[in-house]
C-alpha cells in the first residue's frame, strides 16, 4: 500500500497538471507533495492571480479551494512570497472564521476547525476521527465508503 501511494505521488510530481486544475486541486497537490518531501514551487499558484499579481477576487466564492489553500499555506517556508500572499488573501478577503457562519455544514465545520487548528498542527489520528464524525453526519455521504473508513480506523486503533 505504501509503495502505491509513493508511486501515485511520484506520478503527480512528474506530470504537469498545473494548467487545468482548480484552486482546490492545486492546493491539495501542493500540500500532499510538500508534506511528503517533494520540492514544490509555489509559482503553481500564479495562474490564480490577476494582471496586477494579486489573487483573483473571484476565488472568494470557492470555499473548498480557499480551505485547501489555507491548509497549504501552513507548509510555507521563509521567503515564499506567493504562499505568504495566499495566506494574507485568505485572511483579508475571505476571513475563514467569518465565512464559517455563512456556509453549509459539513464544510462550515471543516473551515471552523482549520482556523482553530490547521491540519499541519494537528495529530493525524484525531483529525481522522473528527473527519469521520463530520463526514458521517453529512446526509450525502457514501455509506459503503463510510463503513470502510470506520473499519480501517478501528483496525488501526486496535493495532496500536
Summarize this structure briefly:
This protein has helices at residues 2-14, 23-35, 63-73, 81-93, 96-99, 107-116, 124-137, 143-159.
CATH class of the largest domain: Mainly Alpha
- Count, helices: 8
Structural class: mainly alpha
H-E string: HHHHHHHH
Helix content: 55-70%
The fraction of residues assigned to DSSP E strands is under 5%
CATH homologous superfamily annotation of the largest domain: Terpene synthase, N-terminal domain
Mean pLDDT: 85
Radius of gyration: 17 Å
Shape: globular
Q: Report the oligomer.
A: single chain
**Total number of beta strands:** 0
Question: What is the CA–CA distance across the termini?
Answer: 19 Å
Q: What's the CATH topology label of the largest domain?
A: Glycosyltransferase
Unreliable spans: none
Major sheet summary line: none
Organism: Gossypium australe
InterPro entries: Terpene_synth_N, Terpene_synth_N_sf, Terpene_synthase-like, Terpenoid_cyclase/PrenylTrfase
GO biological process, one term: terpenoid biosynthetic process
GO molecular function: terpene synthase activity
